[in-house]
Amino acid sequence: MPLERFVCDVIEERRKSPLARAFLRVLSLFVKGGTFLYHALYDKSILPTTFLPKQCLVVSVGNIVAGGTGKTPFVQMFVNALTSKSCDVAILSRGYRAAAAKSKSLILSKGEGPLWSISVSGDEPYFLAKTTKAAVLVGKDRVQSARIALDLGVRTLVLDDGFQHRRLHRDVDIVLLDATDLWGRGYFLPRGYLRDFPRRLAKAHFIGITRCELVQDLNLVEQEVRLYTQAPIAGFTSRYQIDQNLLNTKIGAFCGIAKPHIFYQALESLGAHIVCQITEGDHRLPAPAQLQSFAVHARELGAALLVCTEKDFVKLEDPCKFALPILPLKMEFACVWQEKSWKEMLHSLQNREHTK
Questions:
Q1: Are 172 and 206 in contact (CB under 8 A)?
Q2: What CA–CA distance (Å, rounded) separates 136 from 146?
Q3: pLDDT tens readout for residues 13-34
Q4: What CATH number is given for 57-238+335-355 in this structure?
Q5: 206-210 and 172-178: which strand pairing?
Q6: How many angstroms separate the CA atoms of 206 and 203, rounded?
Q7: What does pTM read for this prediction?
Q8: HEC profile for the chain?
Q9: DSSP bridge pairs for 172
Q10: What is the CA radius of gyration of the chain?
Q11: CB of 314 closer than 8 Å to CB of 308
């Protein structure tokens, strides 16, 4: 079993291992201490923050837990709401596990689709380059990425996964929280999913509560969040495109995302019957040979097709070469709770864009 999956099983108590829990708890104390020191260095101005020219608008979309808050589809929805034409907005991404993440900043897109392969850019930036009209830049040094974006003529920069990236000053911090697990199981990584202190929500300008469809009382969720912030709050849900091919159909399902159970539940709610499944770690896919064997096995069990997430689908070099056709499950975010707060936030950002 891969280490990442083992750790997730311990965190989510699918695996009962007191010794592993204790060891991960000790490691989490080091992560917590390192995080405290990191913020202290910036709070005391020991580490410098870079300010861009005043005519720029810098917006960060981030979270305080590791993965699973729906950040990528939120950024897609948010950028599409801001963008009126190609290259109005630039997305600055780290490019997790991508070749570009280890090198100087790379222009993945100028608003007209990806210019590089997914192996160079990483899956999330590649997906955003394909589904938005924004320029997309990938690289470890996001200050450098920001300056390149300014040279392209862009004046609105969206810092993808930027709440902990304090080297670049931002005008607006949007923080996403999963309604089903606000505080990442209550522990820092790797004992839980926390990567930052909940008290830092006081720095946020807007809070987006995701996966609202999975909780019954959003007012209780808001009460918990209000312990740390008075920022405007809105709730969002995932809406999946109903494909007739899924209704009462046997399928094989696979994914490499942070919270795969949500994907599988969505498929079943749409009327699909999952006969077999493969789950990889976040940002990973089965090797082509393994996926081909999986497709053959699913067909033997009566499956008519394979289904994966959109983010996973873009990673497939040749989706047509497998024993079964592969269908991406298309999903979009929609505001379903306190929509007025969301519209007011968007309106204020659009006004600031026009006045800069």
A1: yes
A2: 10
A3: 888 889 999 999 999 999 999 9
A4: 3.40.50.300
A5: parallel
A6: 9
A7: 0.91
A8: CCHHHHHHHHHCCCCCCHHHHHHHHHHHHHHHHHHHHHHHHHHCCCCCCECCCCCCEEEEEEECECCCCCHHHHHHHHHHHHCCCCCCEEEEECCCCCHHHHCCCEEEEECCCCCCCHHHHCHHHHHHHHHCCCEEEECCCHHHHHHHHHHCCCCEEEEECCCCCCCECCCEEEEEEECCCCCHHHCECCCCCECCCHHHHHHCCEEEEECHHHCCCHHHHHHHHCCCCCCCEEEEEEEECCCHHHCCEEEEEEECCCCHHHHHHHHHHCCEEEEEEEECCCCCCCCHHHHHHHHHHHHHCCCCEEEEEHHHHCCCCCHHHCCCCEEEECEEEEEEECHHHHHHHHHHHHHHHHHC
A9: 59
A10: 21
A11: no
Residue carrying the six token digits 């009126």: 84
Task: Express each pLDDT in 237-290 by its tens digit.
Answer: 988 877 777 888 999 999 988 888 889 988 998 889 999 999 887 778 888 999
What are the Cα distances from residue 198, in Å, to 83, 163, 230, 313, 334?
Answer: 31, 12, 13, 33, 25
Short-list 198, 218, 200, 197, CA closest to 209: 218
